[in-house]
Amino acid sequence: MTDTAAALSAVLGAKGWLSPPDTTPYARDWLDRYGIEPLGVARPAGTQEVAEVVRICQRAGVAIVPQGGNTGLCGGAVAVMPDTVILSLSRMAAIGEPDPDSGSILVEAGAVLASLHEALEPHGLIFPLHLGAEGSARIGGLIGTNAGGSHAFRYGMMQDLVLGLEVVLPDGTVWNGLRAVQKDNAGYQLRKLFCGAEGTLGIVTRAVLKLHPAPRQRATALLALPDFAAAVAFGTELRREAGEFLSGLEFFCDAGLELALKHLPDLAFPLGARGPVYLLVELASGSPRIPLDDILSSALEHGMEQELVTDGALAMSDAQRAHFWRLREEQPEGQRLEGEQLKHDISVPPGKLAAFITAGQEICHGILPGVRINPFGHLGDGNIHYNLSPPEGRPGFDGKAGEIGRALAALATGMGGSFAAEHGLGRSKIALADDLRSAVERDLMARLKDALDPSGLMNPGVLLKAKEERKTFE
Ligand SMILES: Cc1cc2nc3c(=O)[nH]c(=O)nc-3n(C[C@H](O)[C@H](O)[C@H](O)COP(=O)(O)OP(=O)(O)OC[C@H]3O[C@@H](n4cnc5c(N)ncnc54)[C@H](O)[C@@H]3O)c2cc1C
């Protein structure tokens, strides 16, 4: 055992310090692309233990990788250099009592998102962030990546839902910013600095989160549409008709539906006819008096008259509503079960979504004819998971993955969008950021990183290249 491992083991005890091979479940990322065995996994039980771990590692010059649920899709929560400590927040999962008058709750960073949803149910309150990995993703990781999900266009991303934070800084100092108010303009918006920092500026240990009243009614529909241009036009119509009640506006396409139905036999397609594009629409209200079903039915009728919608069904029960959502949420799983895939997490202004998909298809087929394209995602905020499977019958992408990724990223950037919409940069997108973000922007990020973490031990090689590997900024 190294001196650092012995010191950490002495501070954390048997439950709090794991050495190889017990570290194996923490070692690889969700997509199994990154990760080697770490020196060990620290599992502190509270903020002071986190601070002590950070101080020990800092003194020893040992790198630290914070880890939540390890569902991140850019390889940011695992070790890639020998003698790194993974700091797992999994034992810090306490969920406080919600404050209904203020609409807030204090939670530890290791709380699992789905557990928070469950804990709030009896109180008639919601934390309105939902994503496919919510059974594993933890609050600290969601803050670290500034997660978005399917309701972000109505309620905001993680940074809009965090009121206060407690963070252990790279030198082991604890910053207590656990305020519970939205309005706090006493200086820089420090809490936002840590949202999306991917563990490179410190370790989030606790957070005060913003809550909303639970909807008392919902109206949900699954629609088939003739093309993406119709989906964009119908989205605009829905925003106008349903206003603030529109809480879900998700899209997927027939190629993705086909994969989901092929690999997940308990899924069934509920409409009479298939279409090239589908929309999942949900309206929600805290008031039982708003006629949501009528608003949705009349928007649907209008959409059909204008030939924007070819077929559609309103969910008649909670079970049917859940099934409609599964058809959308199982899109990644269907594609994963098909085999090798390329994932791109793009955003464009919602009005340009159809143009992006058309131009993206031309680019992809130009680089690799026959590549199977499966765009799905969040129409409400223009976030497209532009995922690809190899041409039918072929095992991979003929070494073209990088070229495709760069071309799609440049297309999104040129349209005023982003090549890293909600999953962050992690390790997998740093080169893209170097190519596509201005020298001024990269320099600003590097200066922030170096000011807060001068020794560069906090999640090195994530979000930014390590200091010695960075290009010189002009
Ligand atoms: C099936 C599936 C569906 C998904 N859908 C979505 C989606 O719709 N929207 C979306 O945004 N993402 C989605 N994701 C990605 C992923 O769930 C999110 O990025 C999530 O926020 C990661 O949380 P985590 O706890 O697993 O974090 P991890 O993967 O453990 O960590 C992610 C990053 O945050 C850092 N970090 C972890 N904990 C802390 C902490 N306490 N303090 C500081 N930094 C920390 C890590 O070092 C790492 O850089 C999906 C993933 C999967 C597998």
From TrEMBL:
Protein name: FAD-binding oxidoreductase
This protein's UniProt keywords: FAD, Flavoprotein
Family to which the UniProt record says this protein belongs: Belongs to the FAD-binding oxidoreductase/transferase type 4 family.
FAD-binding PCMH-type domain sequence ranges: 34-214
InterPro entries: FAD-bd_oxidored_4_C, FAD-bd_PCMH, FAD-bd_PCMH-like_sf, FAD-bd_PCMH_sub2, FAD-linked_Oxase-like_C, FAD-oxidored/transferase_4, Oxid_FAD_bind_N, Vanillyl_alc_oxidase_C-sub2
Alphabetical list of SUPFAM superfamilies matching this protein: FAD-binding/transporter-associated domain-like (SSF56176), FAD-linked oxidases, C-terminal domain (SSF55103)
One Pfam assignment: FAD-oxidase_C
